[in-house]
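Late entry, zinc ion complex.
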Amino acid sequence: MIAIKASIKGDGVMKIMLDAGHGYNTAGKRSPDGMEEYEFNRKVALFAKDFLDSYQNITVYFAHSDDVDVPLKQRTDSANHLKVDAYVAIHANAYGNKWNDAGGIETYVYPTKPKEAVDLAQKIQKYLVMLTGLRNRGVKTADFHVLRETNMTAVLAECGFMTNQKEAALMHTEAYQKTCAEAIVKALAEQYHLVKKQPATAPPTSTGLYKVQIGAFKDKQNAEDLVKRLKADGYDAVIDFVEK
Ligand SMILES: [Zn+2]
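Prediction complete; structure with ligand written out below:
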């Protein structure tokens, strides 16, 4: 429990910004069969927000928007302004623009390798590889805007190659989008010791009554006398006959 408190700052709410790379008009990478990267990234971000909402004391922000393509500077400015605790950029990779065998998962941190970012990146990489079963390309460094211009722990995950026919087919599916989201959230939960909300269906802690036996008599009249006195004093007393 101490670890949980230590990881939650200020007002006790952990702020996480999810950044689905690119936008509808700056589509990013694309697959040879016409899927645009933003379409995949935004779905993973949506599912990740759903998963994060099942944890206590978390506020999730999106750096991107479906209404307007948010420039990179605006994304990192808002992360810095909101003082979010962690920034996770979600992307998909490509190698060239034709189908080929390049494939797998990689996660990026800034070249100075800030320790917290490396820790988070390694966890994201671990869970993405574990849950997707794709090739592990490792944690890498890159001078990306979102890693350089953010003041907080920031990582960028590349969730497979859009130019790999097998991986692109996976990216089309909600199951794979959810799997990537789940991996990212598992990593965040592990890094920041996030605690699940109590399920709504959990039984209330106590609805029962505790009863205290205050006498045992062989003679019924003695028992009835005690009940009479207790009732006079305002207690709800009953006789419980136990056969010997
Ligand atoms: Zn991208």
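Helices lie at 2-7, 37-52, 72-82, 115-132, 145-148, 165-171, 174-192, 220-232. Will revisit in the morning.
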